[in-house]
């Protein structure tokens, strides 16, 4: 799959492009079943809210590690993901910088402050913003359940020097309050990225984005696949962040089959969990 010339121009202008209905109900079923399984894992790659619910699950795309998953490994290699990503980054040689599932549990799923991904990634040693993120919605995304918000065109401002935010369960580099107020007052209104499960969004590493509290009765599950140009890989040192957030596997990622494996058996049973955590014979997409 490739973006049309108009879609690529829109990405370059706005810093993001929404790709609706890119994955089927059956494929989303597979990814949701795997997310439910991975939510039970106890490892450094699984972060939980202060209340105990899962906030983020990292490193789901490789063939090893506590959170490895055949379904997510296949997802990052599909032409539907890699084709548009290669176009956006302007190179055929890209690799996965990291994968992260944000689960935003019902009621307790907290905010992600306004930030640019390159705010952190430049600190990792990536010399240029030749990077982007491909997100897949595994549940319906609404403003009520903490949708991703983006500021159109904000990637053209370049990187804003961030501060280290320690107010949430996963500490990260966010944009300074006054800088963000200035941006919001001088930019188009932020856009909520909403849509049914299977909707995707590809966005630039300098695009300002955030998400709010999940006030709904249902969990909100997204996977974020962050990509880097192979030529832009950082130099690794003993001080580099762990492999699950700054991947050491910088080999070019090949395009493989355009399919997601069927759901794995969970707990020895063919019954699968829904996004809300309840078992069901068929998970609703």
Describe the structure.
- Strand 8 and strand 9 form a beta hairpin.
- The radius of gyration is 18 Å and the shape is globular.
- It has helices at residues 5-14, 25-38, 70-76, 79-89, 117-121, 177-185; strands spanning 16-19, 46-48, 54-58, 94-102, 112-115, 131-137, 148-150, 162-165, 172-175, 191-193, 200-204, 209-211, 222-229, 272-273, 279-280.
- It is built from six helices and 15 strands.
- With 285 residues, the chain is α+β, with helices and mostly antiparallel strands.
Task: Give a quick summary of the entry.
Strand 14 (272-273) and strand 15 form a beta hairpin. By secondary structure, the chain is of the alpha+beta class.
Summary tags:
285 residues; alpha+beta; 4-stranded antiparallel β-sheet; 6 helices; globular; disordered C terminus
Count of individual helical segments: 6
**What's the β-strand tally?**
15
Order of strands across the main sheet: 1-11-6-13-4-3-2
Query: Nearest-angstrom radius of gyration?
Result: 18 Å
- Give the overall shape: globular
Strand content: 15-25%
Oligomer: single chain
Low-confidence stretches: 264-285
Q: Which class best fits the helix and strand makeup? A: alpha+beta
* First-to-last CA distance: 23 Å
Mean pLDDT metric: 89
* Main sheet makeup: 7 strands, antiparallel
Please trace the helix and strand order, writing H or E for each element. HEHEEHHEEHEEEEHEEEEEE
Helix content: 10-25%
């Amino acid at each position: 799959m490739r973006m049309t010339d108009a879609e690529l121009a829109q990405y370059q202008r706005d810093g993001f492009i929404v790709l609706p209905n890119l994955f089927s109900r059956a494929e989303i079923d597979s990814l949701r079943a795997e997310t439910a399984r991975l939510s039970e894992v106890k490892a450094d790659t699984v972060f939980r809210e202060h209340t105990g619910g899962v906030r983020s699950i990292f490193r789901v795309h490789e063939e090893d590690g506590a959170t490895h998953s055949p379904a997510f490994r296949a997802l990052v290699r599909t032409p539907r993901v890699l084709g548009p990503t290669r176009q956006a980054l302007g190179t055929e040689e890209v690799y996965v910088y990291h994968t992260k599932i944000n689960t935003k549990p019902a009621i307790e799923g907290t905010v992600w402050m306004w930030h640019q991904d390159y705010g952190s990634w430049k600190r990792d040693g990536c010399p240029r913003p030749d990077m982007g993120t491909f997100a897949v919605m595994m549940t319906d995304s609404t403003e009520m359940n903490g949708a991703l918000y983006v500021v159109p065109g904000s990637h053209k401002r370049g990187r804003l020097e961030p501060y280290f935010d320690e107010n949430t369960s996963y500490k990260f580099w966010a944009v300074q309050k006054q800088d963000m107020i200035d941006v919001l007052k001088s930019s188009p209104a932020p856009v909520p990225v909403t849509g049914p499960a299977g909707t995707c969004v590809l966005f630039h590493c300098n695009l300002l984005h955030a998400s709010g509290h999940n006030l709904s009765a249902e969990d909100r599950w997204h996977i974020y696949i962050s990509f880097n140009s192979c030529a832009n890989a950082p130099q690794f040192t003993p001080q580099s962040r762990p492999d699950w957030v700054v991947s050491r596997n910088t080999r070019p990622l090949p395009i493989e089959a355009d399919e997601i494996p069927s759901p794995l058996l969970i707990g020895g049973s063919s019954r699968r969990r829904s996004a809300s955590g309840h078992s069901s014979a068929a998970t609703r997409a």
